[in-house]
């Protein structure tokens, strides 16, 4: 058996831990051969490969990023893409493919698996934790730890100067990182993409905090939106390259707070530091277990599935279901956190 | 409503986060009063209390330890203990009690609740993660992170000198910390209390590692035992005070490895650093949610219960069941890890 | 003897360690009384004080920020400011004043000491490390560690996506943080305020890096300037509040790199996280020693002086000299680093 | 020019940073060739080499340990050792040798350089910071940071249980790590090899601490000795292999404190974690600069010298002087710290 492995989408701490576990168990227990595809689906599309054996995965467990590289290339959007992917797999004599990625990467795997009979097993990866089929995805815990440490640091600077500090964390469509790091960091307001926020309410929380001589920290997901601010935000948040600007909603909010409360406010945008570096112990453990179970699914020829965490168990779910909808923060969970606002 | 709070047993990162959440929600949402009892069950036993209000819990979220102090005092073992506890609760006009602790502390709560009608809600706390009613206990993730960081550091020293490094981690009866930190740290052998180990097998793993010019790391739980080493170990592991010696099974194993393989071996005993300091983001989040749900149970007058984590939900389970048996590492989970040994 | 203490300017890890050392030694060895002034020179100006004794400094050693608060208030710029400061000191029966701060705060101390006979001892504080009279200031090592950790994290994300990552660190007038964190983090280009940079040169370094399949990291001080970019930068870097925008020179450079090389580039602005949180061991040690020597200077009635680090010794230098000019990065030091560029 | 490089003695964070800087500058600026010798002086003794070029040093800056391996092999003690070392150097066409190591490794370099005309440049390395010719050695700052973090963690556990915690840190002959981490961690007693300690005095400090409801932390260097405890200690501290036992003076002291004060005491021995893992930013910077200046010394043919830190400058000192005596903690520095005891 010869197994291909690829990693797609944004990088995420724990990718290398998955790759290592897949290869270690595949080689040692099942006697499989492996081949790595470079840069996600670009690898099979362009027949760009890298050798993958026990030696290649040595020492990579604690390393962030992915030794296979990553990209957002989508063969479904490329002319003749599917034919070229299949051609590569035949040429490379690949019997099964393990695709490690998020919604997009696994969506391709689901299509190739469902419609074209590709023998594919998926491993979920999203730092945003927004895949509905699994309790957690690896990378998320690391990101939350990094954001929480940053909030811890910002508390002292906020209090020394009696300033408002707005911390913008990742999360375009789901506010998991904001919710968890905001709770863990003792934020005085947490703003999510799931629920439009009211700037006056935020200002009220901010002011109630100053009344007891504490300086407020506001944690905001990059995808959070003010109740009526669409027009205002638009120009500010997209740059000439069409990227979301570094100076997004967090900076906008800090200025609004300054205007409305007269208090100094500063913004910190955590950005890419949240997704780099060595994975937390939880993420290494989860990624390793995902890898072990993914190669077991290959051995069981249980294709078209994705491994997932349910409680403390690793289970298998259909790829098609797994990527059907994103998992957002439930209103009841957000309501739980509100006791700490203000 | 006036609610008493106590923390018992070994200290654990996250205790303060529970106390803060209980008080914040209890005061702000339900208008309750609070009183803290000092040093676990010693507080109610000796009527030793400390004021507990919003101001008292400010800034304690990131702090390790417990502002209430802790002890292993057991009122069931003290003459007239139950009468004295009840007397204190009457004197202090306590309507309900939240007990935060492990098997022993919650065992007392279960007895007082079941046999004596005390209105009690439990919050599980054990750094060892060995309570069967909950997926995880807070403190565990912090301990695993600390142990993993230490293993990361030891890899470099092991490899520079081509030595065996034996790392002894916490876990008298259950090997969760050893299993998780061993997997996350890339250990070459993991030894648990749940399964007697064979020193020759360990030596074989160690030697296979040297053959590829890598230096092995062996992670061992303090409660792990060699297959036939009871007599040998006995004298070595208990000191004149009856404490388990610092130089326990880890040091013993390092010497055996030196004798049998001729390779240099060194031991590191992580000890109390595993249970101190600021909690990880996961533990702050879990402890905070436990606190919020514990005060909800009080409001619901749902006494005799313990809060617990099931998947990503906080549920309530009967105190009596919760403490009935310890949760050990399942052999299948241990078997999963074995692919990385040697 | 009654000694006043104040902390001025931007907050900085280690301020509390200085205060603690001053008070512990002052009370225990010399039997002095202390009084804290709130928010730098605003305290004496407005007679705003806070009690300061052994109990007040307990547990503050590892805490970032300052228990006395800080501000940039300058009594020399306030009408009648000097008279009001002197009045407060008489009213509070203060015999000597320890001022902990940077160029501005100590500049005031120098003036009050030189021209008005105030009995004043200074302790240097600048996270930027740009005071000429001392080898290092506390806070700097912490900031460099935080920036280095961030760069470590960004390496993995840069490499997984083959992107350029631009990291903007603190340093308006001196590039010490950029130089040290860039060297420690293995940056492929380091840009300082001391020397205008050539965007084409930066692009050449960036491209030489891609040629060997590595992704480049560019570390840039917030005060660095392109050779010919003044006009271009101006509008982009000041916001409507007159603050330097979050999206400053780093973001500008990332866009230029994208334009000129066609490679994707991203920016991370570390911002306030660099100055918050617990001080590094070096900063705690340095701040503590500064505190011990400052109170010794008071006892010796050696006023008008500032404590400073020279090698491993703490010495005293005249306040007037100490604040005369800022210490910038020597061209020879910068040249040393250039071997790692590209 | 062909330059050999070796690393000897105990491993130390920053070794790889030196090697990288030496090779990067040597190749890029001076066009030199390099060859690595394995495991310190064992390499030249046994002609055991490893290729060393730009590619070999890629990515090693943040990695602990040494890619060249290390040992305590001393060619002066080996029969015919000097002849064999010289033979290897001739055979490998080595024109100059950079030896990175502590007292022993550099002592060999000094002898070979002085008596046998070997063209040798030394780089000082000792985690203990006890080389007299340099203000600091790399590795020391990392060790102090790790020990300080551990002390921070132990404070919370000490206070929750009102126990004494004894922390044993590295330092056989000099107490620098104990002094710096003890000061930075807020220890209530610091015990060094330089000055015999009085157990009753330690107990008095411990008890004065409990009186104000704080739990004491005692930091002790592994080489510290009680005033009259030689006989007592002897049997306890050497094991059957002749190694210093894990359970050394720290554990002995904890027991004495228990006996004399009746308070519970626990010991933590930090051990090898202090010397492993990624170097601190300071150590990466210092090690990098040492490397750059060492290769400059080779280019200047300024042999028989060691690079050293003096203030913020890197200077060169004669190898012979550099290793003549160890640098111990000055009594005046220790006296400074005493204000925090008790």
From TrEMBL, chains A, B, C, D:
Regulation: Non-allosteric.
Cofactor or coenzyme needed: Mg(2+)
GO terms of molecular function: 6-phosphofructokinase activity; AMP binding; ATP binding; diphosphate-fructose-6-phosphate 1-phosphotransferase activity; fructose-6-phosphate binding; identical protein binding; metal ion binding; monosaccharide binding
Residue(s) at site: Important for catalytic activity: 125
Positions with a binding annotation for substrate: 126-128, 163, 170-172, 222, 266, 272-275
Cellular component, GO annotation: 6-phosphofructokinase complex
Family of the protein in this entry: Belongs to the phosphofructokinase type A (PFKA) family. Mixed-substrate PFK group III subfamily.
Its job: Catalyzes the phosphorylation of D-fructose 6-phosphate, the first committing step of glycolysis. Uses inorganic phosphate (PPi) as phosphoryl donor instead of ATP like common ATP-dependent phosphofructokinases (ATP-PFKs), which renders the reaction reversible, and can thus function both in glycolysis and gluconeogenesis. Consistently, PPi-PFK can replace the enzymes of both the forward (ATP-PFK) and reverse (fructose-bisphosphatase (FBPase)) reactions.
Name by which UniProt lists this protein: Pyrophosphate--fructose 6-phosphate 1-phosphotransferase
Organism: Streptomyces rapamycinicus (strain ATCC 29253 / DSM 41530 / NRRL 5491 / AYB-994) (Streptomyces hygroscopicus (strain ATCC 29253))
Source lineage: Bacteria, Bacillati, Actinomycetota, Actinomycetes, Kitasatosporales
């Amino acid at each position: 058996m010869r197994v291909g492995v690829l990693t797609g989408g944004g990088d995420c701490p724990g990718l290398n831990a998955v790759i290592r576990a897949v290869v270690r168990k595949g080689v040692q227990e099942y006697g499989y051969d492996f081949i790595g595809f470079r840069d996600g689906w670009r690898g099979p599309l362009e027949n760009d490969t890298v050798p993958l054996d026990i030696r290649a995965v040595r020492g990579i467990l604690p390393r962030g990023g992915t030794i296979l590289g990553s990209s957002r290339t989508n063969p479904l959007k490329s002319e003749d893409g599917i034919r070229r992917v299949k051609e590569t797999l035949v040429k490379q004599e690949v019997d099964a493919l393990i695709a490690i990625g998020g919604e997009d990467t696994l969506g391709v795997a689901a299509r190739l698996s469902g419609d074209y009979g590709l023998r594919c097993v998926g491993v979920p990866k999203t730092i945003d934790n927004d895949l509905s089929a699994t309790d957690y995805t690896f990378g998320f815990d690391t990101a939350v730890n990094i954001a929480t440490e940053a909030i811890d640091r910002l508390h002292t600077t906020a209090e020394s100067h009696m300033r408002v500090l707005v911390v913008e964390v990742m999360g375009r469509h789901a506010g998991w990182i904001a919710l968890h790091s905001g709770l863990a960091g003792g934020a005085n307001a947490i703003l999510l993409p799931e629920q439009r926020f009211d700037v006056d309410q935020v200002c009220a929380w901010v002011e109630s905090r100053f009344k007891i001589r504490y300086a407020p920290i506001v944690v905001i997901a990059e995808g959070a939106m003010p109740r009526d601010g669409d027009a205002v935000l638009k120009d500010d948040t997209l740059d000439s390259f069409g990227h979301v600007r570094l100076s997004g909603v967090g900076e906008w909010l800090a200025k609004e707070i300054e205007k409305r409360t007269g208090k100094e406010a500063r913004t910190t945008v955590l950005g890419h530091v949240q997704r780099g570096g060595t994975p937390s112990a939880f993420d290494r453990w989860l990624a390793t277990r995902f890898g072990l179970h993914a190669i077991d699914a290959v051995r069981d020829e249980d294709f078209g599935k994705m491994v997932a965490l349910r409680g403390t168990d690793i289970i298998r779910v259909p790829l098609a279901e797994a990527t059907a909808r994103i998992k957002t923060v439930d209103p009841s969970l957000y309501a739980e956190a509100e006791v700490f606002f203000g």
